[in-house]
Specification:
Oligomer: single chain
Number of helices: 6
Order of helices and strands: EEEHEEHEHHHEHEEE
Structural class: alpha/beta
Largest sheet: 6 strands, mixed
Helix content: 25-40%
CATH superfamily: P-loop containing nucleotide triphosphate hydrolases
Number of domains: 1
Strand order of the largest sheet: 6-7-8-3-9-10
Distance between the termini: 20 Å
CATH architecture: 3-Layer(aba) Sandwich
Bound molecules: adenosine-5'-triphosphate, magnesium ion
Radius of gyration: 17 Å
Length: 212
């Protein structure tokens, strides 16, 4: 479904080189690594947001960095769901309006069961700025899943959550994948999340090492 070939990237220094990774349909893969190791950058490369210095990324056999604007927008809108480390919610909108915006753009219905499970039903009408960090994170997850993506790219999806909420959110993401035949690729520093994945890698010494 998604295949990264010989990915090399640097900013001020070399982040990683010659990384290969393949994610099949319904697979759940995690990449662990220390702060600054390049996890977010690698996820941005996989998800159309950062063209790598070297290497190629294929989605269903198409190189995502050679798509035209229309194909790219189509993939971002209908196929990929990206949960950013710093969630880009619309600050002047309510929680519900943020979720509605994503659903409308993707032509999907709002999933109220999901909203209930994420425990954000009672704050739907509140302005984003008045929500706690954890609530904002759960709204951003609801927003992404409302689009019904085929691959979820999640950057520290449990970063602002306590242990119980983190496990609950991971269970919701895994359940979404099972029910929708979707894949999940998560980058995180939290080793406790390993149990949720089919495969786990470490981004270390500029390489990807498999550890499960
Ligand atoms: N757009 C950019 N321009 C310049 N440098 C960047 C850019 N994005 C990331 N970097 C640098 O690349 C390195 C890796 O950043 P990245 O955000 O990928 O790490 P990370 O593993 O996700 O860290 P964290 O766990 O803290 O989120 C950092 O040194 C960062 O400053
Ligand atoms: Mg990061």
């Amino acid at each position: 479904m998604l295949r990264a070939e010989n990915i090399t990237h640097s900013f001020d220094y070399l982040l990683f080189e010659n990384i290969n990774l393949e994610i099949k349909s319904k697979e759940k893969v995690a990449i662990l690594g220390k702060s600054g190791s390049g996890k977010s950058s690698f996820l941005h490369i996989l998800s159309t947001f950062l063209s790598p210095e070297k290497g190629r990324v294929f989605y269903n056999s198409k190189n995502i960095y050679s798509l035209n604007e229309k194909e790219l927008i189509d993939i971002r809108k209908n196929e990929f769901g990206i949960i950013f480390q710093f969630h880009y919610l619309f600050n002047t909108f309510s929680a519900l309006e943020n979720i509605q915006a994503a659903a409308i753009l993707a032509g999907k219905e709002i999933d109220y069961d999901l909203i209930e499970r994420l425990d954000i039903k009672d704050v739907l009408n509140q302005n984003i700025q008045t929500l706690s960090g954890g609530q904002q994170q759960r709204v951003s997850i609801a927003r992404v899943l409302s689009k019904k993506p085929k691959i979820i790219f999640a950057d520290e999806p449990t970063g602002n959550l306590d242990k119980n909420n983190a496990n609950e959110v991971m269970e919701i993401l895994c359940e979404y994948c099972e029910m929708n035949n979707a894949s999940l690729i998560t980058v995180t520093h939290d080793e406790d999340l390993k149990i949720f994945f089919d495969r786990v890698y470490f981004l270390k010494d500029k390489r990807l090492e498999i550890c499960k």
